[in-house]
Amino acid sequence: MRVCLVVLLILIAGSLCAGGIGFGQEFGWETGEADYSVDGSVSLHGDGRNVSFESYCWNVGFVMDTNINKTSLFNYRMKWKYGTLHRRYSDMFWDDMRDEDFILFSTEHTFGFKILRTEKYRLWVGPTILLQGGFSDNNYSGRTEYNDSYRFERETSYFNLGIGPSLGFNYRIFPRLAICAEFSILHENNSGKLHYDYRDDAEPYETHEREGMDFHAHTTTFMLKFYPMLCYREGR
Known about the structure:
Blueprint: H1 2-15, E1 20-36, E2 50-65, E3 74-89, E4 99-117, E5 121-143, E6 149-174, E7 177-200, E8 207-231
Antiparallel strand pairs: 1-2, 1-8, 2-3, 3-4, 4-5, 5-6, 6-7, 7-8
C-alpha cells in the first residue's frame, strides 16, 4: 500500500510542470433500479419495492489536471462539481409522482494514462472514482381515481459511489489554453433515506407518514464533459 502511494505521488509530482485549471460543464444520462425497504403497508410503487428509472443530469464545476500535454505517461484530474438531476421512475402508485428532481454535490478523481500525444493534443484513458451527495424536496398534488384531492411530500437524501473508465482528449489551442473533452461510463451505488408525507381529502384526519425509509439504487451513467483549461506551465 505504501509503495503504491509513493509511486502515485511521484507520478503526480512529475506531471505538475504541465498542468492546468479550468471550469466547465457536463451532461449525463443514467439508467438503473431502486429498492425501497418498505414493510408493505404503504408502497410508493405499483409493483412493490423495486422500480426502474432513467435520469438526466447537468453539472458545472472546477477542474484541475496535472498533465495537459506533457510527454509523461500519467495525469491526475480532480473535479469539484454542483449539479441537478431529473429522475423519472417507470412505475409509481400515482403517475404524477413519477418525476423527482435532485441537487447534487460531487467530487471526482481520474487517473489517466497516455495513449497518443502530439505537440497539439493528448489522448488518454483511465479509471474514475466519483463521490457524490444528493438531496430532493418534491411536492405533488392531484386527484385520485375516486376524485379525491391529495398532497404528497417526498424528501430524499443519498450518498453515491461510482467507478468506471474515462476516455479523455486535450487539445492545446494556444500555449496557455487547452480545450478538454472527456467521456465516462460509471457504475454507481446509491444509498440513502426517504421521508414522505401523504394527505388525502377523503381522510382529513388521517396522515400517512413514514420516516427514515432506506433505499438503494444501482445505476449505469454515461457522462460527456467539456472543460476549457488554463495551462499554468508549458510542458514537453
